[in-house]
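Hi X.,

You mentioned you wanted examples for the new student's onboarding notes, showing what a folding record looks like when two proteins sit in one file. Here is a clean example. The first protein comes first, with its sequence line followed by its structure tokens.
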Amino acid sequence: MDVFNDTHRQIRDTVERFIARHVTPHIQDWEEAGQFPRELYQQAAQDGILGIGYPDTLGGCFEGDVLA
């Protein structure tokens, strides 16, 4: 039984693209520097990733506990 719907898959794809574009290329540099860039949070917010798990009334995209 597949518990994921089309919205779940769309969110998964968005997060995968975000990681590939904004995290993977820089992770080694961040690890060596011992710092995590604040700008990454801003980009995640722009891409709608920070709202995952929050209800629409708070600007999120809650799709059930499967994404929490």
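Then the second protein repeats the pattern, sequence line and then tokens:
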Amino acid sequence: MKSLLSVLSVLVALFVTSHSAHAVVHYAVTRVFLVGGESQEATQELCHQGTPPALAVGVNWRHESDDTVIQLCQRRQRVEEIDSSDLVLQHIAVYDTPACPMSMELLFQVNEDRMVCFRRVTASEVLASGNYISDVWVSTQLNYNTDAVGWTTIPQSVQAPSKGLFRSFWNSMWQTSYHGAFISYQRPVVPIHKVRLLAGVNAGFLRTACFTRIGNQWEDTGAGYLDHLTRGTKSEFCIRRGASDANLPVLLEVATMRGPEECPDRFSQKETLDNDVRLCFRWGEASASESPIVGIYFESLAVGKKPQAVLSGGYQLVSSTSLNIGRRAVFMYAAWDVIDEVPIPAPLDRPPLVAKSVPGANGKTGNLTYKILQLSDLHYTGDSTTKCHDTPLKMKASPCNEALMTKYVNELLDLEKPDFVVFAGDNVQTYKTSLRQASMDAATAGVEARGIPYAMIYGNHDDQRGFTREMMVEMAMAKPHSYTQRGPEEVYGIGNYELNIKAPVDGPWGSAGSDVFRMYFLDSNAYPDHGALSDEDTKYDWIRPSQVAYYRQMSASHTDNQVPAIMFFHIPLPEYAMAVSTHTNGRYREYVQSSDVHSDLFATLVELDEVKATFAGHDHANEYCYKRESIQLCYGGGAGLGMAYGWKEVERRGRVIEWSVDSENKREIRSWKHVFEHWTERRDEQVLYTERE
């Protein structure tokens, strides 16, 4: 174990000295397996019932019209807890062959000629090089998934054919090539230190020659073989990331040259292919102005098909000229570890948000507290007479309309007296231009009248019918007690920002005025522009790469004062749908309506280990918290009456979140809900995070 820890310390040192754009991933996948059941809920429970427990990752591997569900399960462990002799996942791939390569194990047989295969090796062999997999996800979408450096999406679908001739024919006619079940996997972001072209590889090795012939520290580079003139053999390109010597140069630039054209002088290494194509490589030291290459990928396409300029995972096309002389075209892509930092807006011209001091007994140091009320999916129209779409069956008050919702919100504010209120999206839903200002005024009337500070994020209904997010954020920012921010224009979406809670007095938590608690807000957007993004078919939009990068930037700006934080967005992440009963508090009533595109946000939150809980809205009948790894994934629960949909069997509710720190500087985050007309009850009270024994 000691030897492994020393290897890991070298890896961390190597990364820090070479580049600092990404933190080192602290997890490795140690096991993957498949389970089958009658429903997704059943298969998720089966994953968790494994020994040791595992987590379901992504969508069903069978077509939705079939009667059974197949789901991938994975177990991840922190690298610090992995023994040097333990096995970790090194490679996962899809092969269009009747069997897996000899060095790989079969995970799933899609059909007679498509196999999903994987390979595990001992931790001591691969952790230092970064040649291991730290996370896996399966999505219905081929494109835009986990579109962050470090992730790779396998282009072949692993969705099993539908049962029955009619279903198979129907799916083949109407299902697009970018819809299915696609595996994405993540590796640590570590610079490339060596490249090598293996010539004369037997085609039967099926793109495994890099680690079987050279060593487990070497990686293959995607689906593209470079065909060799000799019949039956090919060339395979290999990379090695990480090294025992952190002073080795890193790969900074790649280029391709054809015919008599030679590599320019700045390229110190070249590899010549049989078809008179030269691959050029420039090595050097990474700097703030020049980022290292952390991934190379060869894509295989039918001859004549135009390659995309960018692939998921940040891969950029090096040249539009095919490197191949065979029946398949092959194109080279490279990924750089680039951080495009954007200016963080100046703080709002508002009084600082300050925690409350609770004195201790007998003059001893007391606690600090901060209470937040989350209100989700109010759907204010601006017309107080708007009748309820779905009047709760147990509700006594009448008539059920928007005015009653305002009364409910005011009663919540007076009952809990929160220090802060978060309007968590779908705050308004207007049908008339004349009611836009009225709807925003109605949503915020209670907090403004009581002088309670608040912030807004936006959902998928706020900006319908021409009432844009820009208009709404301008209205919100103009209100006296609003702490809403637009966020940088360089970042996708409107409403990406942070708010810090300050200490009122000196104490074990730091000096007065120091940050003791933090809230992040991200715009989960609404509906994708299918015209601009023609190769996806998800209903809902997703949190984009620039937003995740901006969260990283905001988090990194607090490295000298990391405190437990929480995050708000409207549309839930796909991970919300993976909930299992033993790790869930509250009711999971309706299907999770997340985007079908999987962003890198959850993996980033786990990696940075700063945000302890996220809070969403959107699915009005859901009101649970599900702890997945180190993150509590929570719903606010629908609070809206009037335009907001709801289940007649489900009472409207609001979520309270209370942060505290005690005299020993131990933090805790608790939460509970209040249901309309049941004011004395705290529903599903729980500890979301604690540092106390």
